[in-house]
Amino acid sequence: MSARKQLGVNADEFGFTPDVNRGIVDAHRRGILTATTLMANGAAFDDALRLARETPTLDIGCHLVLVGDRSLVTGKPYPLTVGGLVAALARREIRPYEELAAQVRRILDNGIRATHLDTHKHTHLAPPVLDAVARLSEEFGIRWVRRPFDFPLTGLHNTVPRLKRLTSAALGLMRRRFHRVLDRHGCRATDHFAGFQITGRFRTADLVELLAYLPDGSTELMCHPGYCGEALRGARTRLKESREQELEALTAAETRAALERHGIELVGYAGLK
Fold this sequence. Notes:
The chain is α/β, with parallel strands linked by helices. It has eleven helices and eight strands. Strands 1, 2, 3, 4, 5, 6, 7 and 8 form an eight-stranded parallel β-sheet that branches. The longest helix has 14 residues, at 96-109.
């Protein structure tokens, strides 16, 4: 009989930099990380491919990017912000299906059997991007798609900045259309999601507390572990030293003990119910 609580721990941005790649693999080998999503246009894509082949127990998905990198189709840079992307979509300067299909194909053509899809900066909350992601999920048979709506972090409420809480609540208003589109294309999603509100600000004690509030059913925990080496320090991202804190939390003995204490089953996407 399976546990009432299932947890998939998924790291974004595999392929971003070599030190991020190394942190993700270490979080899997030494900790509770079960999955990651690969950036087809990441600067360290080839390094991530090598590590993926050396780590067959790590579930690999596609981290689809339309912000802050370059197109595989045109070679042109994407907008630097989500607001810029929304404006570009409105002007029909970016064709999300063609862009993202090229990224999925590059990952699959390199021998990766992708198990799930998510997007950088949760851009699949934008209707044209969601439509493209759901279509790709159906066409390529990659059934699992992230549902980026945090469950209420009752116990961690005081540690989450007010703006972050309000943003999370606003995202929740999009749920109805989001799930309608996924259902139409036969996509699957976990029952719950966590990680948006605490991105870049959780340590071991925070993760242990979050696990105490994990709801019944299946949950995806989004995380961003890594090592803050020279490549990451020079990269365009606000998540630098925090990646080492997340890596420490994901590999801590206290975290593993919390999973056992609360009857939480760690799973990859193949094991989700």
